[in-house]
TrEMBL record:
<dbReference type="InterPro" id="IPR013785">
    <property type="entry name" value="Aldolase_TIM"/>
</dbReference>
<dbReference type="InterPro" id="IPR000771">
    <property type="entry name" value="FBA_II"/>
</dbReference>
<dbReference type="InterPro" id="IPR050246">
    <property type="entry name" value="Class_II_FBP_aldolase"/>
</dbReference>
<dbReference type="Pfam" id="PF01116">
    <property type="entry name" value="F_bP_aldolase"/>
</dbReference>
<protein>
    <submittedName>
        <fullName>Class II fructose-bisphosphate aldolase</fullName>
    </submittedName>
</protein>
């Protein structure tokens, strides 16, 4: 086990119909906590970084953290670049050891998106890496990327043609999901997932997972959503846990940063264990 390809992690999940948590980390504590949660749950996990995180910390530093924290790890793990429209950042991450990328050209016309995605797939293959693709913007802004305007959905034949010609390994359709916190219960297009998977048998990436109900997760995973993205839930867990601890520290007038880090890490680990149990991936690395 240890660091393996996205294809290996999702291939089994897709066949057995369970979901793998794909969690967006943003510092060393969250990376270590997500990995520790996966180990505790005996679950595969996909650690994701946004473009914002790559730029704020630096690809070489993140890569060094990743290598150190995954050395000897006993569950399957993968490092994925999430929602990246910048080809230079894609290249930088591939060179530094990311083994999966989402080249997000969804704001381009489909023909140009396809042309560039073909190039990214070819580049990724040179590094033994895999590619997630999408042709429709997922509603909501996260880490400075996206839009609150829902993009028009493409016809099924357009999606299938993109999958066939681009060579992507995972596809992320718009199904009524959204980044960030849901203001109301989303109306999800389960049939669209089923239609794509029936026609092409490709793992589907579910974006905007934070805030969906357990029933919604199960219905989508059963239809082929093998990669389940979680970002907002981790951010909220991290910030709220830290706030709660600091409010207690103020009341006690006791200021001990390592205790803060330990408490926050525990909450991150618990979140990941819960996600693995909810998505059915817990115990799959046993």
């Amino acid at each position: 086990m240890g660091v393996v390809s996205l294809e290996k992690i999702l291939g089994t999940a897709f066949t057995e119909r369970y979901g793998v948590p794909a969690v967006n980390i943003f510092n060393d504590l969250t990376m270590e906590g997500v990995l520790a949660g996966a180990v505790e749950a005996r679950s595969p996990v996909i650690v994701q970084t946004s473009v914002k995180t790559v730029r704020s910390i630096g690809a070489p530093v993140l890569a060094s953290m990743w290598r150190s924290m995954t050395d000897g790890i006993e569950v399957p793990v993968c490092l994925h670049l999430d929602h990246c429209p910048d080809r230079e950042v894609v290249t930088e991450c591939l060179r530094n050891g990311w083994n999966s990328v989402l080249f997000d050209a969804s704001e381009m016309p489909v023909a140009e998106n396809l042309r560039q995605t073909i190039e990214v797939v070819a580049e990724a293959r040179e590094y033994g890496a895999h590619v997630e693709g999408e042709i429709e913007s997922i509603t909501g802004v996260e880490d400075g990327h996206g839009s609150d305007e829902e993009a028009a959905r493409q016809a099924l034949d357009v999606c299938l043609d993109f999958i066939d010609r681009s060579g992507v390994d995972v596809f992320a359709p718009s199904i009524g999901n959204a980044h960030g916190s849901y203001k109301a219960a989303p109306v999800l297009d389960y049939q669209r997932v089923e239609d794509i998977v029936t026609a092409r048998s490709i793992p589907i990436a579910l974006h905007g997972g934070s805030g969906l109900s357990l029933e919604q997760f199960h219905a989508l995973i059963a239809r082929g959503c093998a990669k389940v993205n979680i970002s907002t839930a981790l951010k909220e867990t991290y910030m709220k846990s830290s706030l709660q601890f600091l409010e207690g520290a103020r009341e006690r007038d006791k200021w001990d940063p390592p205790s803060l880090f330990s408490a926050t890490r525990e909450e991150v680990v618990d979140l990941v264990v819960g996600l693995a149990e909810d998505f059915g991936s817990a115990g799959k690395a046993a």
